[in-house]
Amino acid sequence: MNFVSPLFLWYFVPVVLLAVLVTPRGWRNGVVAVASLFFYAAGAGPTTLLLLCSMTVNYLAGMVLEPARSKLGENDRKVVLAGVIAINLAALVVWKYAGFLTEQADNLARLFGGGVQVAQVALPIGISFYTFHHISYLVDIHRGERAASRNPVAFIAYIAMFPQLVAGPIVRYREIADQLPQQRFHRLDDFAAGFPRFALGLTKKVIVADQLGPVVATCFDTSPHDMTFAIAWLGAIAYTLQLYFDFSGYSDMAIGLGRMLGFRLPENFARPYSSVTVTEFWRRWHMSLSRWFRDYVYIPLGGNRHGVAKTYRNLGIVFVLTGFWHGANWTFLIWGLYHGALLVIERGLETGKAPDIRWQRLLRRASTLILVVFGWVLFRAPDLGQAMVMMGHMLIPDFAGLGDVVGPTLNHQRTLVLLLALLIILMPARPATGRFLESARTRPAVALRAAVMILGLPYAAILLASGTFSPFLYYQF
C-alpha cells in the first residue's frame, strides 16, 4: 500500500476521506484507527501482530506511569518506565539489528576458527517510527506533560495513524495529545487546506525524485574500475536531490493527509540545503527526528550544561544513534559519526552561528552544502568499500567523463529535472511550508498552489498511470 500506488490513491484514500467527512464528528478516531490498521496489515502481513502487541503493552504502561493517577511511587514508576522502554528497544534491536549483530559475531568467530549462524529477520514496516512514538508517549506521561490516554481507539489513532506510520514525521505525544479528543467542526476547511499540501508532496516525489532514481542507481552501481570524478559527483548530487524531494515529498503528503483527517502534524523540513552551518542543517533536516533525539536523549544526557567535554560526548552519542537508527550497516554508523564530528568541529571553532555579512553567508552555505553532499555518499552506498571509492574520486579530478553506461541514463528529461531541482534548492526563496501553502492572501501562495494543482498534479497522475513510480526511500528505515 504505497503512497504513490493506484490502490492507495484511487481507492483507499477516497474511501477513508469520505468516511471521515460523512460520519458523525466523534467517529473520526475510530475511522482513522480502523483504516490505519488495515493499511498497515496490507503491507506488513503477520508482523502486524508485533504492532498490536507493542501498542497493548505501551497503552497499559501509560496508565501506570501517569503521576496524577498512578498508585506507584516515583522510584517504582521510573523502574516501570525503564522496563517498558527496554522492551520497546529490545523489539527494535531483534527485528532490525539481529542480522547485522550476528553477522559481526560470525566475522569475529571466524578469526578463531568458529562461526555463528547469521539471523535472517525481515524488517517490519515502520518499526523505527512507531517505537519512537511509543517511547515519546511513555516519557511525556511520566514527566507529567500530558495525561495518559484512557481511550484505546484514540491511542491507536495516534500510534498507527497511516499518514505518518511508515516514514514519519515522528510525532511526539505532546504535539498531538490535545488534538485526539477534539471533535471536528471544519471538516471541509481541513480538506481544502490539506489537499494542496498532499498534491505538492506527490508532485515532488513522482516528477522529481523518481526521475532521478535511475541516474543515482547507475552511478552508485558503477564498478571501482569505471568510476570517475564526473560519475561520483553526479551520483552524489543526484542523490542529494532525490533524497530531499523523495522524503520531503512524503512528509508533505503525510502532513496534507493528516490535515484532511483533522490533525496538524509537525513540519519535517525547512529548506535544509539553505543552511549556512551543519548545526543549522540539523535544525532544518528531518526536524521531527532531531527534536526527538534532543528531547529524549541529548537533554537527559545533560545536553550542553556540564562542560565542553560532556557536550561533545553527548553529541557523539546522539549522532551514533542517529546513524544506526537509519539502518544496520557500517555506512550509517560512519555517516552519523561524520556529522557528529562536523558539529563538534563547529562548536570548537565557534563557527556554529551564521555570519551577518552576505558574502560570508554565501561562502558558508556553499561549504556546508558540499559537506552534506559528501556525507550522503556514505548514506547511499551499499557498503564502505563503494563509499570510499566514490569519495576518493570526488577528491581527485580527472577528465574521463560519464562513460558509456552512466551517460545514456542522463537523458534530456532527467537533465532538465536535475537542473530545475538544483535551482529550487539553491534559490534564496522562503520555504514552502504548510502556512505558506495554506495562505490564500499572498500572491506567491496562490501562484504556488495554482502551479501544483494545474500543472504538477495532472502530470504526476499521468506518470503514475504509466507505472513510473517507486517506493519512498525512507520506507527502508
From TrEMBL:
The chain crosses the membrane at residues 7-27, 33-59, 79-98, 118-139, 151-171, 227-245, 412-429, 450-474. Its main location: membrane. It comes from the Bacteria. It is found in: Cell membrane. It is a multi-pass membrane protein. Belongs to the membrane-bound acyltransferase family. The lineage of its organism: Bacteria, Bacillati, Actinomycetota, Actinomycetes, Pseudonocardiales. Keywords: Acyltransferase, Cell membrane, Membrane, Transferase, Transmembrane, Transmembrane helix. Pfam families: MBOAT. InterPro entries: Ac/AlaTfrase_AlgI/DltB, AlgI, MB_O-acyltransferase, MBOAT_fam. The keyword Metal-binding does not apply. This is MBOAT family O-acyltransferase. PANTHER family: ACYLTRANSFERASE, TEICHOIC ACID D-ALANYLTRANSFERASE.
